[in-house]
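Archive entry. Fields below.
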Amino acid sequence: MDTHVIEMPRAPTVTEAPAAGGVALRLRGLSRRFGANTVLRGIDLEIPGGEFVAIVGRSGCGKSTLLRLIAGLDTPSDGTIALTNPDGSAAPADTARLMFQEPRLLPWESILSNVEVGLGRAGTSAERHALARAKLARVGLAGRDAEWPAVLSGGQKQRVALARALVARPPLLALDEPLGALDALTRIEMQALIEEVWREVGFTAILVTHDVGEAVALADRILLLDHGIVDLDIRVAVPRPRRRGDAALAAIEGRILDRLFGRA
Amino acid sequence: MSAVPLRRLLPWSLPLALLAIWQLGASTGWIAEEVLPAPTAVIAAFWDLARSGKLWEHIAVSGARALVGFAIGGGLGLVFGMLTGLSRLGEQLLDTSVQMIRNIPHLALIPLVILWFGIEEEARVFLVALGTFFPIYVNTMHGVRSVDPQLMEMGRAYGLSRAALFRRVVLPGALPSVLVGLRYALGIMWLTLIVAETIAANSGIGYLAMHAREFMMVDVVVLSILVYAALGKLADSTARALERRCLAWNPAYRSA
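PREDICTED_STRUCTURE:
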């Protein structure tokens, strides 16, 4: 495993690390086999609370499997995942909230009630409505509470899915290529929105993506997964907000792509 | 004249034209009275039977049979369809047997049913229940099976309890298919009842028709057929209204 740290000049006002409200992850010897097929081979990883980590790699490199293990949707064949709250206590395995590639909204429930799915059974109905409404407003969909999901565009549906994922203020957000199906402009808008709410709330974010440019634009740190191991672990120390087309970002993107295509 | 009333009237133009030809044919003697009485004669028969209250009695009897049979057959179909749709064990235990019985036309059981129940109410209710069970069963099972697995995964990932998953994901996901089954079942419900009442009954619309046949009262026979048609249409409209209401979230069912 190679570790590259690319230090960039910092502008202190905007590179302040977000409030450390996220859980820390410690993965030890994590493996996942499906029959004879080994997808993850003994992954060791430390992710501090509040970090934004992107996982990139070719199709079938195991990045979605890794995310599903972290999100508690699947159990490892070997190894352990430990989640630690900021106060040092252990967080339960179902701490993570997950955003999928598809919005996966319940088409027969109102937009508001879809967001409330993220609250579990907590709170009175007035409290739940208020929290869900506030989150909908935050993602730019104020006043759309009572409508059916079918009337929304693809990007708007993913906004609702983001509101649903964040409404309970989870300390860990797992994103499984959530923007893969969106058009290029909507994707850039959604990237900005995800970065903004991450900076506001300070959760730990783990983003699986096939788009290296997206990973470089959003993440503090990029993991390149190949054949079930972490092949590259790069820190992106570029100040935020990041400008598209920034030379430093392009250099990191080039380095990752070279590694992916075996040129470095 | 605006286009909207014209388009509303269009579907009725053909039935009205047929009715006019029928009336014309009957009043000129081109259609013999013992073959098909004039619409006015049918209306007169309707008026007589309605005023004496007999028509409503027969409709009430037929309606009660239909609804009781449908409630039993449809209810069981819903429960068994859920069971086989949700659990592999349920499917392995039940589905083969149900599919075997489904291939017997339920009306073929009439001789057996008469031997079991005689010509009492149970016989007709049993036949209606048997006929309506299968469309509800098959469509419920299919509906539950076709619930989006991605939504199920989302529900589990967001910590929905089993009961909440059933209520918020499985049931509404299966509902469009269940309602298709409901419409089929309502059609079979009337068909079964017509046959059962025509063969053996001493009350109900089918009895009214057969009784009138014995006295060559063709107008009452035609009236009975029209009453069946109206009841069938009423059931279908109710099912459609139910679809529009329950599936308002689905753009395909939104009312115009």
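CURATOR_NOTE: The interface with chain A takes residues 150-151, 153-160, 168-169, 172-173, 175, 247-251 of chain B (CB under 8 Å).
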